[in-house]
Specification:
The structure holds two protein chains of two kinds. By secondary structure, chain A is of the alpha/beta class. Chain A has two domains: about 180 residues, Periplasmic binding protein-like II (D-Maltodextrin-Binding Protein, domain 2, 3-Layer(aba) Sandwich), CATH 3.40.190.10; about 210 residues, D-Maltodextrin-Binding Protein, domain 2 (3-Layer(aba) Sandwich), CATH 3.40.190.10. Chain A is about 50% helix and about 15% strand. Chain A has 20 helices and eleven strands. In chain A, the strands form two sheets. In chain A, strands 1, 2, 3, 4, 5 and 11 form a six-stranded mixed sheet that branches. A five-stranded mixed sheet of chain A has the order 8-7-9-6-10. In chain A, α2 links the parallel β1 and β2. By secondary structure, chain B is an all-alpha fold. Chain B is built from 13 helices and two strands. The longest helix of chain B is centred in the N-terminal third of the chain and has 34 residues. The radius of gyration of chain B is 24 Å and the shape is globular. Classes of the chains: A alpha/beta, B mainly alpha. The interface between A and B is large, with 41 and 30 residues.
Chain lengths: ~450, ~290
Amino acid sequence: MVRLSLAALALTLTSTTAFAQTEISWWHSMGGELGERLEAIAADFNASQSDYVVVPSYRGEYEESLVNTIAAFRAGEQPHLVQVYEVGTGTMMAAKGAVYPVYQLMADHGSNFDPSAFLPVVTGYYTDTEGNMLSMPFNSSTPILYYNKDVFEKAGLDPEVAPKTWEDIEAFGKQIVESGAAKCGFTMGYAATWLGTENVSALHNVPYGTLENGFGGLSSELTFNGPIQVRLWEKLKEWQDAGIFAYGGPAGGPDTAPKFYAQECAINMGSSAGRAGVIANAKDFEVGFGMLPYFADVEGAPQNSIIGGATLWTLTGHEDAEYEGVAKFLTYLSSPEVQAAWHQATGYLPVTQAAYELTQEQGYYEANPGSDIAIQQINLNEPTENSKGLRYGNMPQIRIVLDEELQAVLNGDKTAQEALDSAVERGNAILREFESANAQ
Amino acid sequence: MDTKRTIFPNKGLPYAFIAPQLAITLIFFIWPAAQAVKASFERQDPFGLSTTFVGFSHYARLLNDPTYLAAIGRTFVFAAAVTVIAMGLGLLLAMAVSRVIRTAQFYSTMLVWPYAVAPVVAGILWWFIFNTGTGILPYMLGFFGVSWNHQLNGTHAMILIIIAASWKQVSYNFLFFLAGMQSIPQSLTEAAAIDGAGPFKRFWTIIVPLISPTSFFLFIVNVNYTMFDTFGVIAATTHGGPNQATNVLVYKVYSDGVVGLNIGSSSAQSVLLMLMVVILTFVQFRFVERRVQY
């Protein structure tokens, strides 16, 4: 019996080698339902042809996955493709010997790849100063505003009108709290970082740092201690003391979504990719969608919002035949059908113009009001130097600094100006460290 | 030859016996530690593509960095608080159980349970209990006029991690104290009782000196525990915040190395942490052990 099964095993082994498919490893950070969607994409690609097989594997959250990739690269065991979050972009770009840039991969392996098919805000974030696309946009999102229509109604507000400006947020918040419709007006994720400095700067068209927000070189200095950012942080403290704003924790704000779902806060600001989750969790109330607020008296606002999310990076050190497969897979991945399906299922942005148009043709946006807010918001205006994105090495550390400084403002230890000045100083030290580690 | 030789004639054999243990120690402890020491003198990009030797500059930068110095002070406060609370409670519970006759076994089993809980899980349990929105404790503290907010109040956050870290260690201390007490001959305490010593007198003059080796051992174990093993608790509850209020040394090693990808500085920090614990343990053996009676 044992011998028989061994023979069977030997047979299967030989038969698989007979149809040897080239394996392409893809490390990602999409847990839960997003992970299932991602695996379905790989499975569909594998079924669509017989030369290559894409093997996705979950490697933990973005931070962990990046560290795992780095460790694997040092040990010579790196995957072909890895999904890296936007704040890791600076780190990846600086790692010239480790990365096989997408534009080059596509040029070497014959696919007719057209970077202009992608949305400009998306590609802008991931191209070098010569306009070459270095990584493949996959899941990009931008923060939007979610609000509780039922609470709005209870507070005597028009549930069909989303707040547009910070002045609206203040007035609506006050009315919500005073009427007792909810305990707090609004909460927001990434309160010190992606929303509270990065997108605020972009929406008001003010710089986050010098040299085109770091796109122009590693010697860029941070400048996010300007009047607009300080004004928002001051307001956050003031609103917190008045009960209009509730802080939901550092980084993504682990407590923001629970506060919104429990109807404690009437408004939440967070990633557009949270849309499916918000709808699933908002069981007892109706959700409305809106764009991020801006200060009404600032000339030119709102400019456009910037993205977050992740892209796929190809790593060096593999065979040409394997890269051939990577190129094919990336082409498949950016096809309008795949992109449109991913966009609709997850709330991530459609990264190509064609996927956007296809979704429009399919009537998805009409059937799902609010689902096109994110894409409208990133396309509000032609991106400027201040609103095409950020490019900083050690960005995760800078974000930690910002979280700490906002906490110091909210607990009354520092004024907004002091905190942002100190964040700039500490952030610049981190940037100089990165610059000297990567000076070539 | 009238006595039986207990020395191996073969010179190589003893080495062969200890080889597996040596190999494990070398591969899993000495080698990574040596790598950390090496990395602490280098500046390297995350992918290891370019490396420059920078001497002691990581160390110099750390020792001039007020946030690092603050983290050292904070770590000692944290370690002292956790050690005192965890050992105090462990001793108290062991005393209580050692006086119970019928259900001692049941209590011991119950009290040891928390030790089986992984640090991260323990952290998440406390995160639930202390959650500012939905937790039971902030709700109850509200009745006493305390507005609990460990996300913005550094003191609250520190209290939270001290409680969470101690809770896990109480069981361990309890178990050792109980074993220590049970090894004290009954006749000693009985004799003292006959001589007229009350329970407190007996505790201070008989039990405390006789369990001093256990206490000393636990002291070292607890300090090492707070220095290294509390990472999971902090990662699951406060992430070192707010505004660094709970950023102890071991968590800073992680956040600078793993999140910040600053391998050189992170390595230098782990070397410093290792040195501090070595020195501390040395001091403990040198000065505290003198007072221990075996």
